[in-house]
Structure formats: structure tokens, C-alpha cells
Amino acid sequence: MSCMLTYAIRNLPASSAWAARGFVRSLSCSLPLQAAVQPKSKKTLAKNGVKNIVVVEGVRIPFLQSGTTGLLNRTSVPRDIVDYIVYGTVIQEVKTSNVAREAALGAGFSDKTPAHTVTMACISSNQAMTTGVGMIAAGQCDVVVAGGVELMSDVPIRHSRKMRKTMLTLNRAKTLGQKLALISKIRPDYFAPELPAVAEFSTSETMGHSADRLAAAFAISRLEQDEYALRSHTLAKKAQDGGMLVDVVPFKVPGKETVTKDNGIRPSSLEQMGKLKPAFVKPYGTVTPANSSFLTDGASAVLLMSEEKALALGYKPKAYLRDFVYVSQDPKDQLLLGPTYATPKVLEKAGLTMADIDVFEFHEAFAGQILANLKAMDSDWFAQNYMGRKSKVGAPPLEKFNTWGGSLSLGHPFAATGCRLVITAAHRLKKEGGQYGLVAACAAGGQERVQAELADLVLKEEVCCVMSGQHWN
Hints:
single chain, alpha/beta
């Protein structure tokens, strides 16, 4: 992750000559983004007395299936102007409990630059970004690096509780007799490892079980889920081959090759996908490895600034971050429905409707989860009986929805996905000439964030965020 921060900082332009020419070099000089369509004119979301906060740049290393290869790099702003660094992570390594600080030092940032780490399950980097937004809005900082990192190929594995208790007691034993007495109590089952569980602490259920139940509740068939997953892989492959995924930077895996692209994108066929057995609810479940996001290694980062600071430094922001909303739901029956609850809230906060949004980027934990949310968002009955609303917010049109693939195909390194969603939304807005984007993600614990983006943007927990894309001449 430290090399990703270094790479991100290294490649941002800093001379006034760039500003005089009216644009800032992107992380990638890909032609598709430089030939962007100009957005249609819409109302601004700027608020009197409130700082405009912008995304200057964003990068990620290739997202890799865990157990394959490995992690991050990119931007050229002077390290000494970064006021704060905040990173998200879910499965923490005890030796680097504040991974943001360790990565910052490893990347060559000053030891005077504060850094802290947050954890909020799959929306940890969303929380990192909104923390940065809050610090800039409060006037405490002008420049913040936010991001997330996850290494599922090397998760910490603990001794069993019995063994841990014995070892701690042994450490306090004073005599040889006391030590031998404790050792004699150790049994073979003490050596059984305690693996990290991708499960809800409050319900002991995995997200896969929740996704299966959600799909059943909304009558979403196995075929529908496989079709959506195939769509994700097909669109991701098209975006990758077309040079759209310009936020990806090469990463040299220690002792191995340099990886340059996501390796989980694998378009298949409905026939092949249909051969896979249910992964969670057996034998009748509909959630399978083919229509679920996979365990992934990866890291991501975004550079946030006040608009005033960005322009003074000669940078052309990619988008404004305008509003964000976090919501929490019942972690048993509504664990993955956060986008449905958060979207109308963030839209109302920003004064927008679904029709105003040009780009939608939703985290795809499971195909069934996405399809359930689309059905719930398009249901007056659900809005009235579960949300206390008079009418539905409406489902996003698929032609605007995750058109460069999503977590099902690109991968889902828990804490790194939020930044990917935001920077993808920003790039799509520029490429497609859109103005507003909406980013949404669900997370463990029944929490969600949604965000929208444009030349003006919005965010969420089960997050919702509104963004807007700015395009200067």
C-alpha cells in the first residue's frame, strides 16, 4: 500500500504551466478519458458558506483473486502539502494495526503527517473518504489522502481461545512446576486454529446466507442471478479491453511478476455457471461462486482537496463530493438492503431525483443482492410498508448502472472497494458527459453508504453519496 501512495503522489502535475493550459494530467493519459464528452448543463449543488470539496485523482492496484498474486501505487503532489492520511481496512494485521500510518511512512511521507485507520466492513474506504471530507469542510485540512487496503491471501489466524488463555497464563507462571502443570493441561484440540469468519457477529450468519434469503424473499431466480453476474463480467471485460479502467496502476509483487490488470474478470456462459452448486444454503440455495463477489487482494487511494487549494496548485478536479448519507438496518433480514434505504435520503438532501443521475455505481456483493435492491427501490409497497415513504424512489436504469463491471467481476477487496466506486463514477461522468453520479455500497452489520457524483457528486453507508463532475475549458 505504501508504494501505491508513492505512485499516486509521484504522478500529479505541479507546475503552473499545466494550470495555464487549463487541465491536469490524469493518472493515466488514456485517450478515452481525454476525449470526454462535455456534460449537459444542470443546476449546481454548491452551497453558500460551504467549501467545495473535490476529488483530484484516484488510483488502485489491480484487484486480484486471493491466493494468486498481490497489491498498490500512483499521483505527483508534493508529500509535504498532504495534511492528513486516513485509510480503511477490515481484516487487520496486528503488527500494523494503524496501517494508514505504516503505509504513509513506507511511502516517504513526513513523520509529521498524521494518519489513522478506520474500519466499517465493506464501506471502510467510504468512511475514510467521508472522514477526509469532514476534515476539509471543517477547515482542519486542505489536502487529504483517503483509501483502503485488504490482503485476503494472508489473513491473521489465531490460536484457539483455550490455547491463548493457556499461553498467557504460562507467561505469568513463576516456577518450573507451575509451567509444567499448565503445559500438561494442553490437549490436541487446543491446536485447532481460529480462522477469521466472514459472518455477522450478532447473527452468526455469513453474508452469503443473507443474500440467499434476500433473493428468496424477492423471488429472484438462480437464472436471473447468473444472468446479472454474466453481465458484470462481460461489461468489465469490455471496459478492460477498451482501456477504460485507467485508475489501475501496475504493481510489482515481491519475488514475482508485475501485475497490470484485474485477474478476476472471466466471462463464462450461463451453461457453465449453471453447473456450480449452491455455496451457502445447500442444496436448494441460489447463491453460487459464479454470482457472488470473490475474496480479493487490493488497495486504493483518492486525493481529496478543497476546490480552492486544488485550483491554486494547478489541478483540475475530476468531481465534487457534495453529500453523503449513512444508514443502518436490521443485520438479519435487511443486511444488504442499505442502498434502497439510503438512496432516497441522499437524493432529497441534495435536491435531486433519480432522473437527474447520469451514472450509478453500486457495490455488487452478490447478484441477488443487487437485483433485490433494484426490486425494492422500484416497489411502492416496499416503500410504504418498510421505509415509511409514500412512494418508491425508482430503480436505476441498467443503461446507466455499473456499465464498466462491478465487484462481481472486478473483485471486492473489502476496504478498497469504496474508492474504486467513486473514481469509476468520476471517470464515467467525464467519458459520458454526465453531471451527477450516485455511488452506493452495503456492508456488514446492516450498514450502507450511497454517493452521487457529477460535475457535482453525492455519497452513502449502507452509504449514499452524491458527486458531480466538473469540466473546465
